[in-house]
């Protein structure tokens, strides 16, 4: 083999030329393969990181008008609101061609009675603007304008030490008269005085709003009748002797009890997967300790829960702690974000069933806190359309193994923050086409959010295609160079083989003699090329990783910089691996060796005498 | 002493398109200390016989013997390494090896040490009349006669005592041809080599101890040199 290598070095121009060409071809192949691998890895990672969800809203059948009397304006104010002929079930989303990974689910939220925990305080300074009081007018009057009344008794709420307040039945055109000396009961909300003819020192008037009622529905969302409900237009009434013994009086006491209860309710959001929750999907909510509820736990209905960071801190709860959740009502209309907002809360349903009783607990279990999440939303303007509210506990839907059908406090159509589904990444167009074809688009509206997957994936696919071309070009050039190398150093060396055989070299020695030198040259070139290619690929990769935050912020709808930074770091691939370089080197060397053996064997088949004698006989 | 012989040898060249019988029932024997010439027209089968004797071709019938041992038992590669050396008309030196390295080559095949091989090669080069300063030259830098002398030195570097020379003077001028034949004859006379030369040159044949004539694949021994 020494002679073989020596002979190679005696043709330095050819040697160096092939060395450079083969090294360059290998480097090109290495760079192409590394980039290709990187884009394939990133696409794979994207499949793990990105999810595509759709949120569903039932289109209103019509816009209804609600006329409300405004005592200050002395006229009716017209309000509009969406009206629906019927509340559609989520089964309408099961149309041909609809392929879901998860869902569709229409989430209710449950109310759990707080056990040994406290709610975190609301951000708003003046949250409690409801009062339930017994009062008596200072003089006979008709409360079409704010009238001064004495507070006899505060049944619920904080009157802030005040003995009087200005009462106005603001939303009733012809309210009943109030008589001095009589006691009345009302559930009041305060608002700024807008009556031009009345001066109120505090600037606030109190309007009767809350009243005993039940908003209970059946499982299909049909409101159930209740004897407790007051006639339309009646919002307050006289407290007579024995009033609280009557059904109506009990209704008022029940209302007091229920309002007090609101501050002891923990909203609980059941779901099939965190990825179905828009806040988690958009990375507005992220796990800050522990972990998300696992797929297995969601599937098996494990008693696992995730609690918000504020709530955990406020109650010194940690991952692994247990949280008792006695669920007593279900709301199928709105979300915790609507009723239990961070800055706002709207109590627009009753906690009483049709009998006037607070809903009984229908499911009670101890849940293990497996994760604590940080919620960086919502934008105050959008608080009411977030599925997460203050202190919302997330649990697997399947963990609630009792029916809530007798405990439905409110029911409404599918809304973006209550109804969602997950489909495979990249399938939005196909899904939407099937959706439109099904005709469901007439009464449903779907918003898709893939966090920018389609655009990022398209970019990566394009990069992958270029890398594949580069890889093929590298492969082709390396192979052509190897073929040329073998042509010059083996095929054209037939005579040398014949001389060596004439000198008594065995066939094996002839093979070693020829192939040894070639392989020596190929090893040096391929290792050199792989090394250079590896360095170049790593260099390109680190540059690419630095720039990836650009496409993240450009295309990703993940709202926070932190989430986008996280995306960049999670999509960043490790440096082009040594195994790839080793694999490419091994492949090229094996290719060279195999072809060399074939060609040398062909050389050996030729009769040496035919080559060595100048005449062929 | 009979060193090499062929008995009833037939040899056929078989290509994709044709079949040519190059040797027909050829029998011959070669002894040490004898200079042989094989003469004949082009295409008569001289070189084929030489290659069969060298173990570079396998007869379809008959056998080649080294002493009493058939070549099949010895093995062709070993036969070429140990029993015969070849000299060609075209010299067939390795162009990218120096003169010295060319002569050392056969010794390296049999794994003789570098030092020993170099010393022996120098000795052989001197014995064929090449100067020391020519050792480091490449074959292309030498004249044809000098190259053939290098080829003879290379042939002598193995332990073989039979030299098979295929038109060794074919590419040389008369003067150099004489020198080469002189060297070969010297080997026969002084070192008891058996030299078999295939040639067209009747002058060379005239210097041989035994002459064989090849006609259309058949070999006849001539009693006297022509």
Task: Write up what this structure looks like.
The complex is a heterodimer of chains A (617) and B (226). Chain A contains 14 helices and 20 strands. Chain A has 617 residues and is an alpha+beta fold. In chain A, the strands form 4 sheets. In chain A, strands 5, 12, 13, 14, 15, 16, 17 and 18 form an 8-stranded mixed β-sheet that branches. In chain A, strands 6, 7, 8, 9, 10 and 11 form a 6-stranded antiparallel β-sheet that branches. The longest helix of chain A is centred in the C-terminal third of the chain and has 49 residues, at 507-555. By secondary structure, chain B is α/β, with parallel strands linked by helices. Chain B has helices spanning 46-53, 71-74, 76-82, 99-109, 114-127, 144-156, 174-191, 202-207; strands spanning 2-14, 19-31, 35-40, 61-66, 69-70, 84-87, 162-166, 194-198, 210-215, 218-222. In chain B, the strands form 2 sheets. In chain B, strands 6-7-8-3-9-10 form a 6-stranded mixed β-sheet, sandwiched between helices. In chain B, strands 2-1-4-5 form a 4-stranded antiparallel β-sheet. In chain B, a hairpin with a 2-residue loop joins strand 4 (61-66) and strand 5 (69-70). In chain B, helix 4 (99-109) packs parallel to helix 6 (144-156), helix 5 crosses helix 6 and helix 6 runs parallel beside helix 7 (174-191). In chain B, 48% of the residues are buried. Chain A binds chain B through residues 2-3, 6-7, 10-11, 495-496, 498-507, 509, 607-609, 612-615, 617, and chain B through 13, 22, 42-48, 50-51, 54, 56-57, 77-78, 80-82, 86, 88-90, 92, 94, 96-97, 101, 105-106, 108-110, 154, 158, 166-167, 170.
Sequence-ordered SSE layout with sheet pairings:
The complex is a heterodimer of chains A (617) and B (226).
Chain A: H1 2-9, H2 12-49, E1 52-58, E2 62-70, E3 75-83, E4 102-106, E5 109-113, E6 130-137, E7 147-156, E8 164-167, E9 184-192, E10 204-210, E11 236-238, H3 247-262, E12 265-271, H4 278-281, E13 285-290, H5 295-300, E14 304-308, H6 309-314, E15 322-332, H7 336-339, E16 363-375, E17 393-396, E18 408-411, E19 419-423, H8 428-438, E20 444-449, H9 453-489, H10 494-502, H11 507-555, H12 561-571, H13 578-605, H14 608-612
Parallel strand pairs in A: 12-17, 14-16, 15-18
Antiparallel strand pairs in A: 1-19, 1-20, 2-3, 4-19, 5-12, 5-15, 6-7, 6-9, 7-8, 9-10, 9-11, 13-16, 15-16
Helix pairs in contact in A: 1-11, 2-9, 2-11, 2-13, 9-11, 9-13, 11-12, 11-13
Chain B: E1 2-14, E2 19-31, E3 35-40, H1 46-53, E4 61-66, E5 69-70, H2 71-74, H3 76-82, E6 84-87, H4 99-109, H5 114-127, H6 144-156, E7 162-166, H7 174-191, E8 194-198, H8 202-207, E9 210-215, E10 218-222
Parallel strand pairs in B: 3-8, 3-9, 6-7, 7-8
Antiparallel strand pairs in B: 1-2, 1-4, 4-5, 9-10
